[in-house]
Amino acid sequence: MSLTATTTLHNEVKMPWVGLGVYKMDEESNEAKEAVLSALELGYRSIDTASFYKNEEGVGQALQETSVPREELFITTKVWNDEQGYEETLNAFENSLEKLGLDYVDLYLIHWPVPGKYKDTWKALEKLYKDGKVRAIGVSNFLPHHLEELQKDAEIKPMVDQVEFHPQNSVPELQEYCKNNGIQLEAWSPLARGKYFENAVLQELAKKYNKTAAQIILRWDFQHGVVTIPKSSSKERQAQNADIFDFELTDVEMGKIDTLNKEKRIGPHPDEFDYNS
């Protein structure tokens, strides 16, 4: 297993288990571009951005410069809250496509479930999918009740749900729902910005396997069948984040990490997000 390892989405598209997230990477300083180039050099093939990140152009520059063939890449971007609605989403997608310098994206996501808008937004994603402009469509920050509501009117079931997922917020109910409904769960902020790397359980396992706490968490993600996109602009850290395929946690160890769940988020709860700001 390596960075080329993939999961198969319910429409048979293959998605890498590990990718690079570029949230808060600066475009003007070339941080996003350089991070993507170093990740691609290390063997990463999945890159996750969003219109809200304001760095799609930097990602696009890296994609133009790399020698990695387009068909080997898996590029994700997302439609932001104030871009939602049917026509608005179609326009937002074209803007993202232009900034990325691509003919299509591999995965397009609704960034947050904006009340009263996400169903129209989903209709736009379905059109983009049918038109062949995206290879897969999905959502981000959707809880089971959002997914249920969306599917009442949807023609196509989301292929992916990208949510805040780490040992202190492992959303067991959503894990179960996605598993039962053939929706691939994906973790944003899988390392919770390093806020609890010193945890005794993680430290004990890190010592046992000669790994870092971050690598233990990312392996835990993988064994839970969760796609992950750790963010790092450091090539050394990117290499570490990818080095999770040469060991395996036992069921007991997986269970120990599961007990760290406190429903403790570092980002907003989807039902408490201020959608009017």
Automatic annotation (TrEMBL):
Keyword Oxidoreductase assigned: yes
Site keyed Lowers pKa of active site Tyr: positions: K78
Domain (NADP-dependent oxidoreductase): residue spans on this chain: 29-261
Keyword DNA-binding: no
Keywords: NADP, Oxidoreductase
GO MF term set: oxidoreductase activity, acting on the CH-OH group of donors, NAD or NADP as acceptor
Catalytic site positions: Y53
Binding site for substrate: H111
InterPro entries per UniProt: AKR, AKR5G, Aldo/ket_reductase_CS, NAD(P)_OxRdtase_dom_sf, NADP_OxRdtase_dom
Family: Belongs to the aldo/keto reductase family.
UniProt name for this protein: Glyoxal reductase
Organism (species): Pontibacillus yanchengensis Y32
